[in-house]
Amino acid sequence: MILIDGKKIAADIRAELAREIAAARNAGHRPPGLAVILVGDDPASQVYVRNKERACAEAGIRSFPYHLGADTRQEDLLRLIAEANASPDIDGILLQLPLPRGLDAQTCLLAIDPAKDVDGFHPVNVGRLALGLPGHVSCTPAGVLELLRRYDLPTSGKRAVVVGRSNIVGKPLTMLLSRPGTFGDATVTLCHSRTPDLAWQCRQADFLFLAMGRPRAITADMVSDGAVVVDIGINRTPEGLCGDADFDNVAPKTRAITPVPGGVGPMTIAMLLSNTVQAWRQATGA
Ligand SMILES: NC(=O)c1ccc[n+]([C@@H]2O[C@H](COP(=O)([O-])OP(=O)(O)OC[C@H]3O[C@@H](n4cnc5c(N)ncnc54)[C@H](OP(=O)(O)O)[C@@H]3O)[C@@H](O)[C@H]2O)c1
User: Fold this and answer.
1) What residues are annotated to the active site?
2) Spatial distance between the Cα atoms of 60 and 37, rounded to a whole number of angstroms
3) How many whole angstroms from 76 Cα to the centroid of ligand 1?
4) Which structural domains are found in the chain, ordered by start?
5) Residue 192 CB–ligand 1 contact under 6 Å
6) How far is CA 272 from CA 10, 56, 62, in A?
7) From the alpha carbon of 264, which atom of ligand 1 is closest?
8) Nearest CA to ligand 1 atom 3
């Protein structure tokens, strides 16, 4: 059984990006820039934003922090996004969600220039993914695919089951796995809370992707021998963080599995940095 080490792969990616940026800076290019917009004082969001800003600094990406009060008005936030869209030093714009009550996340996300939408949430980028065109891909599913690539676990011709149909994880992951290519070309079933006999569906999977947010809901009897299990769930329990799989009993049956924590989680920030560097290369030709 292979224990997929997302922490190490994420560190490798961040080091690779840092080297690329340093080389481009030596050749005279400006640094990549990421606007990090945080509205309000949600403690979890503050931690996420701090981690993202620290990761940017380590890689050589300049972050532009916009930390706004919870009483910020929609028009002020939209004006700030317009400024970031127009700034020649900013390649990516990250709007930390959820927004405080009274602000409409969809309207704000729509206002971000798709070329700077490094979270891959803008309908233009979602549409590009659906059509198989290049564009920014949502960071968590992009990180899942990167783990499969780096562990050489091709999905072509395999049966994949994705449990969870959210716009940021399950749906884009389903589209990525359905694309032509070695790490696509899967026959994908997308399951959700109305799926009858989830256990049977999961047992059909050569590759099982879990994004439900239900601690240890997927038990060993729901997983076929030799399956690859990618556990995207992050659940807080009194005993600490755990995934959607009952890891201790599921892992021995698998060909490969991601632990929680230390599996998919660290990949999300690494892919955010990677999307920012991609936007910077497109903007500057670096
Ligand atoms: N690793 C990372 O960086 C990362 C990033 C994002 C999210 N996550 C984690 O991934 C998990 C999912 O997040 P999300 O934002 O995608 O979740 P979400 O928006 O809450 O969606 C959960 C999905 O799971 C489905 N579901 C829930 N219970 C189910 C059940 N018993 N059987 C079958 N399907 C069920 C829901 O079905 P319905 O649509 O029918 O309600 C829904 O589609 C969470 O634990 C989250 O913390 C991790």
Assistant:
1) 52, 96, 119
2) 19
3) 32
4) 29-114 (3.40.50.10860), 139-264 (3.40.50.720)
5) yes
6) 11, 9, 13
7) 1
8) 265
User: Is any ligand 1 atom within 6 A of the Cβ of residue 140?
Assistant: yes
pLDDT tens digits for range 147-173: 999 999 999 999 999 999 999 999 999
Residue nearest ligand 1's atom 29 by CA? 193
Q: How far is CA 115 from CA 43, 217, 232, in A?
A: 29, 38, 27
The single-letter code of the amino acid at 195 is T
From first CA to last CA, the distance across the chain in angstroms is 40
Q: Summarize pLDDT for 106-122 with one digit per residue, the tens.
A: 999 999 999 999 999 99
Predicted TM-score of the model (pTM): 0.97
DSSP for 144-170 reads HHHHHHHTT---TT-EEEEE---TTTH
Q: 37 - beta bridge partners?
A: 66, 95
Side chain identity at 184, as an amino acid letter?
A: G
Q: How far is the CA of 166 from the centre of ligand 1 (A)?
A: 6
3-class secondary structure for 94-107? EECCCCCCCCCHHH
Q: What is the DSSP letter of 220?
A: G
177 near 186, Cβ under 8 Å?
yes
214: amino acid identity, one letter: R
